[in-house]
From TrEMBL:
Organism: Candidatus Solincola sediminis
Residue span(s) of domain Amine oxidase: 78-136
Pfam families associated with the record: Amino_oxidase
InterPro entries listed in its UniProt record: Amino_oxidase, FAD/NAD-bd_sf
Coiled-coil residues: none
UniProt protein name: Amine oxidase domain-containing protein
GO MF: oxidoreductase activity
Superkingdom of source: Bacteria
Entries under PANTHER family matching the protein: PHYTOENE DESATURASE
Length: 140
């Protein structure tokens, strides 16, 4: 996901510059290495790839880079294995595989939040609350 917040709010960056937020999918467990060693190479590969395939010339314009890896998210935010959108980042924890808002096994239990349907991130967490509220109104 690529977000350009300074497009809407120029005060977020110095004049003549822009802010891009880039959120690539990544895994916590890396084969034969770890995020402490791979962080800088990952940044370089990501900028190079985006410059080549998505944002021509990006690499020549980058002035400051801040990067948070799954390991950083675990350390700073206490998210297990750096899972920012739910408790796990594997396919079985995404989209339709997430628990639904209405429990199938406990009557009157409704679930809301990052790890429930429809997903993680602020807009989808808000949506999960609205879904649960509508179900409570319907069934309770």
């Amino acid at each position: 996901m690529i977000c350009w917040p300074s497009h809407e709010d120029a005060s977020l960056s110095p004049e003549g510059h822009r802010v891009l937020n880039i959120i690539p999918e990544s895994f916590y467990h890396l084969s034969g290495t770890d995020w402490d060693r791979e962080k800088q190479p990952f940044i370089e590969r990501t900028i190079e790839s985006l410059s080549k395939h998505a944002i021509p010339g990006l690499a020549e314009h980058v002035k400051v880079v801040e990067c948070a890896t799954p390991l950083d998210f675990e350390r700073r935010l206490r998210l297990p294995e750096g899972a920012i959108y739910d408790l796990q980042q594997d396919l079985t924890s995404q989209t339709v595989f997430r628990p639904s808002a209405r429990s199938k096994s406990i009557k009157g239990l409704y679930l809301v939040g990052n790890s429930t349907h429809p997903g993680g991130g602020v807009p989808l967490v808000v949506a999960s609350g609205l879904i649960a509220a509508n179900l409570i109104e319907k069934y309770e």
